């Protein structure tokens, strides 16, 4: 049985060359006769080498080439705008330019994604890492949302799950309904949410501390269920802000790319991002 090849989603890319390469590979896997020559012919380019040089990053896309690609690839208006911004975001040389194009990319991504409501009672919501996880699980349609099943899925006690569910109901994020068999089932009242990012807030810092401690404990999990990565990168104050901008774009794209309603064959993963200085300025 042949494996279904999924077309690359332009809105999930941060690098134009990676997108073009993945798009070429997608076409190649769908049609073995597809080549840079046939693609160049489709796009109206006389030089197939020129197209390949663009894909691997050795030649830059001009505004005219961008326009040609967008028209020949039948992009919608949002796709054309995103493609144009992605090209300039990818080749930006200064933090100012990168931040400018990054903000515009974020606007397009957010406009194509359900608005996430701020959690008002975040003091109680962040009192335990269990509550956000429960809130996410309650948003899936294809799982049994009884207390017993939720406790099993999250590997915790029934008492803790029931206490957490009662708290979610108290702050108007979830509600329970009794079935005809007398079993309480729960549902989310706000499946798409976010916690206000208040830098320096003691509540948020305590939550991240708990989360990082759990990440350390996760070293006992099988390697197939956890990863640790670490980088040491020299950054100026402007480059630090540039990195944060890139990270925000990446987060929004990740939320869009993996926004699914079906939990089958999937686990809920917690991803922590942390960055801090380890030296004085040089």
Question: What can be said about this structure in brief?
Answer:
Helices cover about 50% and strands about 5% of the residues. The protein has helices at about 15-30, 35-45, 50-55, 65-70, 75-90, 95-110, 120-125, 130-135, 145-155, 160-170, 200-215, 235-255; strands at about 115-120, 175-180, 185-190, 195. A hairpin with a 5-residue loop joins strand 2 and strand 3.
Describe this structure in words.
It is built from twelve helices and four strands; from the N terminus they run H-H-H-H-H-H-E-H-H-H-H-E-E-E-H-H. It has a two-stranded parallel sheet. It has a two-stranded antiparallel sheet with strand order 2-3. Helix 4 runs antiparallel to helix 5 (77-90). The mean pLDDT is 86. It is globular. Strand 2 (174-178) and strand 3 (184-188) form a beta hairpin. The termini are far apart. It is mainly alpha-helical. The protein has helices at 16-30, 36-43, 48-55, 63-72, 77-90, 95-111, 122-125, 130-137, 147-154, 158-170, 202-217, 237-257, and strands at 117-118, 174-178, 184-188, 193-194.
């Amino acid at each position: 049985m042949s494996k279904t090849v999924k077309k690359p989603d332009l809105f999930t890319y941060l690098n134009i060359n990676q997108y073009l390469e993945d798009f070429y590979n997608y076409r190649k896997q769908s049609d073995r006769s597809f080549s840079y020559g046939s693609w160049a012919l489709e796009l109206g380019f006389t030089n197939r080498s020129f197209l390949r040089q663009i894909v691997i990053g050795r030649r830059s896309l001009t505004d005219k080439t961008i326009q040609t690609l967008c028209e020949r690839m039948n992009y919608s208006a949002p796709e054309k705008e995103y493609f144009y911004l992605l090209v300039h975001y990818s080749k930006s040389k200064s933090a100012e330019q990168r931040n400018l194009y990054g903000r515009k990319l974020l606007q397009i991504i957010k406009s194509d994604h359900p608005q996430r409501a701020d959690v008002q009672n975040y003091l109680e919501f962040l009192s335990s890492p269990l509550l956000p996880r429960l809130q996410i699980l309650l948003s899936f349609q294809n799982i049994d949302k009884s207390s017993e099943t939720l406790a099993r899925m999250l590997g915790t006690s029934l008492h803790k799950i029931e206490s957490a569910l009662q708290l979610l109901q108290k702050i108007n994020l979830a509600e329970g309904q009794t079935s005809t068999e007398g079993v309480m089932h729960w549902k989310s009242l706000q499946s798409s949410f976010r916690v206000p990012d208040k830098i320096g807030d003691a509540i948020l810092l305590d939550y991240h501390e708990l989360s990082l401690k759990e990440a350390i404990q996760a070293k006992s999990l099988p390697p197939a269920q956890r990863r640790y990565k670490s980088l040491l990168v020299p950054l100026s104050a402007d480059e630090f802000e540039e990195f944060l901008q890139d990270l925000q774009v990446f987060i929004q794209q990740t939320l869009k790319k993996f926004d699914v309603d079906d939990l089958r064959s999937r686990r809920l993963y917690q991803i922590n991002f942390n960055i801090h200085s380890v030296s004085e300025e040089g």
